[in-house]
Design a protein that fits this description.
about 140 residues; mainly alpha; two-stranded parallel ribbon; two-stranded parallel sheet; 7 helices; 4 strands; about 55% helix
C-alpha cells in the first residue's frame, strides 16, 4: 500500500479522518512511500506547531516516533535516485498543461508506479487528479 506524505503525517496527527486512515493502514501492510516523505512529514509536524495545533515539543516527539517507525520497518521508504528523478522529468513533461503537478507529488507518483503499485493513497486533491497520468488510481479514506 503506497501512501504519500500527507497521509503518513495524518497517521500521526489527530485530524478528522485520521482514525479511519489508521485502521486502513494497520490492516494493509506492507506500507510504502518515497524517501521524500522524511522531509515532508517532519515539515508537516512543524507546520502544525507553527499554526498552534501542536506544541513544538509534541511535533518533535512525533518526528521521533515517525523515524523509529521507519527504523522498525513499519514504513518502507524507496530511495530517490538520479534515475528516478529522470523518470519524474520524463513523466511530468507528458502531462497536459491544465493538470497541476508539484515536484514532490510527481516523485511520489513515479515512485509508486516504479514499485508496481496500482493505487496511491492521499487526501491531496492535486495528487489525486494527477494520479491517472501515472497509471495509478488515486484513493482516499
Amino acid at each position: 500500500m503506497y501512501l504519500d506524505s500527507a497521509y503518513i503525517a495524518k497517521y500521526y496527527v489527530n485530524e478528522v479522518d485520521s482514525a479511519p486512515l489508521r485502521s486502513l493502514v494497520e490492516r494493509n501492510p506492507p506500507l510504502v512511500s518515497s524517501s521524500v516523505c522524511l522531509a515532508e512529514v517532519s515539515c508537516v509536524f512543524h507546520r502544525h506547531a507553527r499554526e498552534g495545533r501542536l506544541s513544538l515539543s509534541r511535533a518533535g516527539a512525533l518526528t521521533k516516533v515517525f523515524l523509529e517507525d521507519i527504523d522498525s520497518g513499519f514504513w518502507t521508504l524507496i530511495p530517490i535516485t538520479d534515475r528516478l528523478l529522470r523518470r519524474v522529468a520524463t513523466q511530468a513533461s507528458g502531462i497536459p498543461r491544465n493538470v497541476y503537478i508539484r515536484a514532490a507529488d510527481a516523485v511520489h507518483l513515479t515512485t509508486a508506479q516504479n514499485e508496481g503499485e496500482t493505487e496511491i493513497w492521499t487526501n491531496d486533491r492535486h495528487l489525486l487528479n494527477a494520479a491517472p497520468y501515472f497509471g495509478l488510481a488515486g484513493r482516499t479514506v
